Amino acid sequence: MSTPPVALIPREILFGNPARTSPQVSPDGKKMAYLAPVNNVLNVWVGTIGSDDYQPVTQDVDRGIRFYFWAADNKHILYIQDVGGNENWRLYATNLESKETRDLTPFENMQVQFIKRDKHFPNELLIGMNKDNPQVHDAYHLDLSSGELSQVAKNPGNVAGWEADAQLKIRSCVTTHPDGSLELHVRESEESEWKKLVTWDPNDSLGSGPIAFTLDGKSIYLEDSRNANAGRLVKLNIANDEITIIAEDPQYDVGNVIIHPDTYEIQAVAFFKDRVEWSVLDEAIAADFARIRAIQKGDFSITSRDNADKTWIVSFTIDNGPVQYYSYNRQTQKAEFLFDSQPDLNNYTLAQMEPVTFTARDGLTIHGYLTRPVGENQKNLPLVLDVHGGPWARDTWGYNPGAQWFANRGYACLQINFRGSTGYGKDFLNAGNKEWGRNMHNDLVDGVKWAIEQGIANPQKVAIFGGSYGGYAALVGATFTPDLFCCAVDIVGPSNLITLIKTIPPYWSTFLATFHTRVGNPETEEEFLKSRSPLFKVDQIRIPMLIAQGANDPRVKQAESEQIVAAMKEKGIEHEYMLFPDEGHGFAKPENRLKFYAAAEKFLATHLGGRYEE
User: Fold this and answer.
1) Within a 13 Å sphere around the CA of 567, how many CA atoms are in the beta-carbon half?
2) At 317, is the secondary structure helix, strand, or coil?
3) How far is 475 from 493, CA to CA, in rounded Å?
4) Nearest alpha-carbon partner for 407 in 136, 66, 8
5) How much is the pLDDT for 377?
6) 107 exposed, middle or buried (CB, 10 Å; 0-12, 13-18, 19+)?
């Protein structure tokens, strides 16, 4: 007798707002903040650690707050917000006593970037703004008490990022160049001339860059992939160019880096392999890491520390349950459970995520993750190929609402870190150069074939699904390899690489050379980019399509979806098109997410035969 299927997990639980998430301890260690809904909109709540006196302090009523932090003065919560997904982020400060919220950057058509806050300068902040030139961000000093802004570094037009030293002074910048190379410049003080310190050629550029200055300001920590395959953590002496290697792995780039907030010494480094692996460099925290590792089996990260460095907030990611948060006391070495991000998930049986590897047709080793439905039947399953965005990003192990959704509905979910994905060293990254729509896609195809050969996937029932680059991959699947897939779902995916590159946001100007190096240059390679664009192969689509788009998307404009939808209409190709007028690059508002996933679930059930929540 076969095992009855596990209970259907409601879409509201998978894709609605979390109950609570992103906890941060206050600088004085007495309070904690977290994000939680107020009338279904995420806001910041603040209360006393260990009590139940938490109250909402912000009053967002539209898109919800997703990125916030404590001001070092203990008195303010700072957060960013845009309008309708346009990514013109403004910076807001909420006073915890008066509950009054100030717009600290009240400028139209401008985007704030966060540069640095430091506990030793509690009333100050460094931010970037592109208010003078929409293409680049100048660096500004912000006085939190008065709200006064003063420019501390002018962008000459090619600075992609600023770095401050331990005195909260802008001391380094990274410039980009038309050939795709990067240069690191430093200066002695804010009055001094810039001096070129490092050049990274185009092959090294995506895995390299500054992390922080040392306390004395005489050296700088870098992620550096020169003379190595993977990005290493190094310390560079500014006066004599001497390099000290701090942490490295032959295959995996350096991931998260933990820096002591007072000494500015490196304490621990994470490498994102199949799972997260920490290398502890500071003996003073070795016992803490050992104690934290023993709490439970998930992958952990230190997400917040108080000024005294006594209280840490620790998050644990597991594959078959919600993210869990703990408060950890370094003096007693005791951990106190705070909350689950989505406690309702604990009422359901979730699937496990399994790291997998296979060999691509040209011999390259490809890594990824497989999530199969819970139960006895693990073979000949309908398969969803879920393609990550970026593409200069990667999938990681842990709870993934999409993977759990697919598995719960009866599908195997395959997530592939195709060539061009980050984290696996520069040889693997650079193997994706100019390979959009070809070898990057071949890796996805080879992954599906591997799953079929292993008996995991039913070759007649394979869907391709993704957002951003993943949406492009879904369109490529429908046009370049339509016989492999029975349906495709594209979320905010570009259909024409020429129009994609020509309409990038103005503030991506310093990133344009990377597009030219890694995708192609529309001015000199128009025919090549046409050959890699799904729009020009619409007549090859033989499968049903679902396309979803945000009207305010600054990265992949509405026209990218509209032009391929128009071409499909003209040719009578079966498709559904969903346009969200109040969204950008992805769906921030839970009501929009739920509307999309309801449509996608019905679409997949129709073509793959899985379960569906009415």
Assistant:
1) 18
2) strand
3) 8
4) 8
5) 83
6) middle
Integer CA distances (angstroms), 229 to 201, 203, 280, 430, 515, in order? 14, 10, 22, 11, 21
Question: Are 408 and 610 a contacting pair, CB within 8 Å?
Answer: no
CA angle 111, 112, 114 (to 5 degrees): 150
Alpha carbons 172 and 161: distance in angstroms, whole number: 9
The contacts of residue 589 (CB under 8 Å, 6+ apart) are: 62, 63, 64, 582, 583
Residue located via tokens 């020169």: 226
* CATH number listed for the domain at residues 20-129: 2.120.10.30
Q: Which of 141, 388, 575, 585 is catalytic?
A: 585
Tokens of 472: 């492009």
Measuring CA to CA, how many Å separate 127 from each of 112, 130, 367?
7, 10, 37
Active site residue 553: yes
Helix (H) / strand (E) element for 183: namely: strand 182-186
The pair of structure tokens assigned to 352 is 């496990």
Cα separation, 503 vs 166, whole angstroms: 38
CA pair distance 481, 459, nearest whole angstrom: 13
Q: Can you give the pTM of this predicted structure? A: 0.97
Active site residue 150: no
Return the amino acid letter for 117. R
State the DSSP string of 13-24.
Answer: HHHS--SSEEEE
Domain boundaries, the chain: 20-129, 351-608
- The matching CATH number, chosen from 1.10.10.60, 3.40.50.2300, 3.40.50.1820, 3.30.300.30, for 351-608 is 3.40.50.1820
468 included as an active-site residue: yes
Radius of gyration, CA atoms only, the chain:
24
Distance CA 324, CA 315 (A): 6
Among the options 495, 553, 561, 607, which is catalytic?
553
The Cα–Cα gap between 396 and 234 comes to 25
174: left (phi over 0), alpha (psi -120 to 50) or beta: beta
Given this model, what pLDDT does residue 549 score?
Answer: 98
Strand partners, 417: 367
* Cα gap 79→34, rounded to integer Å: 12
The per-residue pLDDT for 50 is: 82
Kindly name the residue from 304, 468, 509, 561 that is annotated as catalytic.
468
Q: Are 137 and 111 in contact (CB under 8 A)?
A: yes
The residues pairing with 268 across neighbouring beta strands, listed in sequence order, are 258, 280
Which residue carries 């006393």 as its tokens? 48
CA–CA distance, 42 with 22 (Å, rounded to integer): 11
**Phi, psi angles (nearest 5°) of residue 355:** -65, 135
User: Residues 446, 366: contact at Cβ < 8 Å?
Assistant: yes
Q: Give the closest residue to 410 by CA, choosing from 605, 142, 144, 136.
A: 605
Q: What is the mean pLDDT of each run of 10 residues along the chain (614 residues)?
A: 75 98 97 98 95 95 97 96 96 95 97 96 97 97 96 97 98 96 96 96 91 98 96 97 97 97 97 98 97 96 97 98 97 96 98 98 98 92 98 98 98 98 97 98 98 98 98 98 98 98 96 95 98 97 97 97 97 96 97 98 98 94
The amino acid that residue 361 corresponds to is R
Amino acid at 95: N
Burial label for 214, CB within 10 Å (0-12, 13-18, 19+), is: buried
Three-state SS at 578: strand
